[in-house]
Amino acid sequence: MPGKLAVTCTRVGVNVVALGSVLSGKALIACGLRRPPEGWRRTLGILLRSEPTRFALSAFGLDAPDGNESRLAARLREYLDGQPDAHFRLEWHDVVTIRRRTPSVDVVLLRFASSGALESLETYFSGDPPAPADDRDADRDGVHRAIIAAYNRTQLLPEVERPCALASAVNGPYARRVLSACCLSFETIDRSDPAARFRPPDFRARRTLGFGFLSVVMRPAADRRTVDVWMSAHHVGLDGVPLQDLLTGLEQAWGVSQPPVFPAPDHHQPFMVPRLCSCPGERDVHEMLTFVDLSPVLALRDQLNGRHGPEVGGPVTLGAVIAWLLNGEPALAGVRIASTVDVAASGGYDRDVDVVPLRPADFVSNGDPWSGFVTFAKEFNRLLALSRARTSPLRQGMQTAGLLPAWAHAYAVRSNPAALDDTFGSLCVTIIRDAKVFVAPMTDLGLGKGFFAIGHAALPTADGRRVTAISMKGDAGTISEYPAMLRRMVERSAALLQSGIDARV
């Protein structure tokens, strides 16, 4: 009984604080004394803090004339320093992670032993290194040794604990700059299997130094004249489309002399079996990757758009079609599926993301799985327009939650995690149309059905076909079924095209 009483009192206290914070915050906003908070970034800072919440994007065959690691590190620093979206570092607090803008971007080159231990680091600063705060900070080799030792001690800690544990080993402005840098490392893979280059690095073995949000892994070609680049980001630091813009800019700046040829579709087995991507003490999350020929789905989207675009208030999007098709799977029937939306900077707010969460089953009638698609697509586009205008119901809810103290916001989320699926969906589908291989993020709570990350819909293969890389994260047992589901989704699309869609939609 005393335990239950304490829980009840805590809940009542949090509710009182929450109500007071929201009422006072809205009053200040109404008086013009405060603007609504950046709800998306706060939500990420509460919900996406562990290692598997990071996502990654890729670029293949970039020119690296001599393959010299130090020169590539210097070139990367020079490029990133000119990109405003790279100018962030992370602040870690007890219940929330916050991003802060930085005046410059530094790069630290990490070198690892075959055992996975960090052996050495080299710094590439923008401008002169910071002035030392004391004698200990002035001994830069000593600072490096302390960071290396701390990294190896903390390599398997949960991400919410690791940055502060690293920082406790060193102090001073020089050490802080090193810990906040973009981390670059090089990885050699077996090139005898041409498909090996498309399997993402295990970023658990290439973690940052804690306060920088970017981790870059370069894989040199056998002749070391080109490199494949994998860029992993903490979601609080940057969202998916801006990170893809960074990589596209890098391709243009460095040049691509050997465009890649991607693996053929996986008809018999997944390209990559589920692989653990979380650290001890974190939510148990696995990731996997498959390549799928989405041509029938794209053709279906085009036909639906041609027939129904005007009546649904805009183009029929690929995200809407995929969500509707996935609802045809028994394991996903009735699931609320979230689709992400890139939202442009406006009104003094940075570029960010919103989510369109809909349950396709709510629109089905008469037992015909396609009977309500037009109504569904119309509602999807309505919410999409609201998201882009920063007026969606979900945006407003995140802004209201952002008025809470961070601890109260975190308590509210963790005390009722089931509500997250009602708010954000149980499965998330995100599409970056210019991405090659796009490694999905994940959340610390919610999304019980996991995450799909979909890249460019027409990557070339050696046999002349076109494929899409689709990455999945979630529970191993759940996501292991998804490659087969995706193949069935493609087959249903082809069958629907063959039979004609006029009478069904």
Describe the structure.
There is one protein chain. Helix 1 crosses helix 13, helix 2 (39-47) packs across helix 12 (393-401) and helix 9 (295-308) crosses helix 16 (482-499). By secondary structure, this protein is α+β, with helices and mostly antiparallel strands. It folds into two domains: 45-254, Chloramphenicol Acetyltransferase; 272-499, Chloramphenicol acetyltransferase-like domain (Chloramphenicol Acetyltransferase, 2-Layer Sandwich). It has 16 helices and 16 strands. Strands 9, 10, 11, 12, 13, 14, 15 and 16 form an eight-stranded mixed β-sheet that branches.
Beta-strand residue percentage:
15-25%
Q: Could you tell me the mean pLDDT?
A: 90
Write down the domain tally.
Answer: 2
What shape does the CA trace take?
A: globular
Look at the structure and give the CATH class of the largest domain. Answer: Alpha Beta
CATH topology of the largest domain: Chloramphenicol Acetyltransferase
Q: Helix/strand/pairing class, anyone?
A: alpha+beta
DSSP, total strands:
16
CATH architecture of the largest domain: 2-Layer Sandwich
The DSSP helix count reads 16
Determine the N-to-C terminus distance.
57 Å
Give the uncertain stretches in residue-range form. Answer: 5-10
CATH superfamily of the largest domain: Chloramphenicol acetyltransferase-like domain
- Residue share in helix: 25-40%
Main beta sheet: strand number and arrangement?
Answer: 8 strands, mixed
**C-alpha Rg (nearest Å):** 24 Å
